[in-house]
Automatic annotation (TrEMBL):
GO cellular component: nucleus
Signal peptide: none
Organism, as annotated: Nematostella vectensis
Cited SUPFAM superfamilies: HAD-like (SSF56784)
Identification of the protein by name: Haloacid dehalogenase-like hydrolase domain-containing protein 3
Classification via PANTHER family: HALOACID DEHALOGENASE-LIKE HYDROLASE DOMAIN-CONTAINING PROTEIN 3, PTHR46191
Family annotation (NCBIfam families): DREG-2, HAD-SF-IA-v1
Any Pfam family: Hydrolase
Amino acid sequence: VAVMYRLITLDATNTLFRVRGSVGYQYAKSAMEQLGYQLSAANIDKEFRKAYKMYWIKYPNFGAAHRITSKQWWGKVVRKTFDGNIHSEEIEAFSVHLYNHFATGDPWEVFPEVMHVLTQLKGEEVTLGVISNFDERLEQILDSLKLREFFSFILTSRKVDVCKPSPEIFRLALKMSGVHSKEALHVGDNLELDVLGASSAGFSSLLLNRQDSSHKHVLENFKVIPNLKALIK
């Protein structure tokens, strides 16, 4: 696949790496280690998903347009997630701890094939970039996971003030790499954000579906790959 393109961009979370265990597992583990609270990871996961969705709607893109720092935005999500489970006087410092913890490589794990695939692609002299709806910590995370060196640029929605699926963030990647959209491919795990977003900017796109999906009928119109090895075949 790679030889057909001069630019390949990839999503980050659930494409290059994922949360180790789950967000609920990581939050519960930290609550135990930092504060001595024993909480259910499954419940925290459920509350986290609700809180994340709520604040993404209220203050999109980690609060970028509302003069909220991403650290403050995540503080709101953490407070809502643990509402009633952690004392209010402890939650502020705990949310900062979680923000800093998730800026390291510790709570993340790289998918098994990623390092090999990126090494091969780098050898093909393809320009590689990351396009992700993420905050400013992504570069540091990629660095910790030993992935940063593979990429010519990292575009995060918070930093450039535009989110996928807007074609603008993809066009920015074309501008930065000096490549025409016909020579560009984007790969990610989200149909709307990655595939439709990239297509709207003229990119070719591949949908990464690491699970054997029950949504197969929905995906038939799109090129689906089970992992990133397809990029070097």
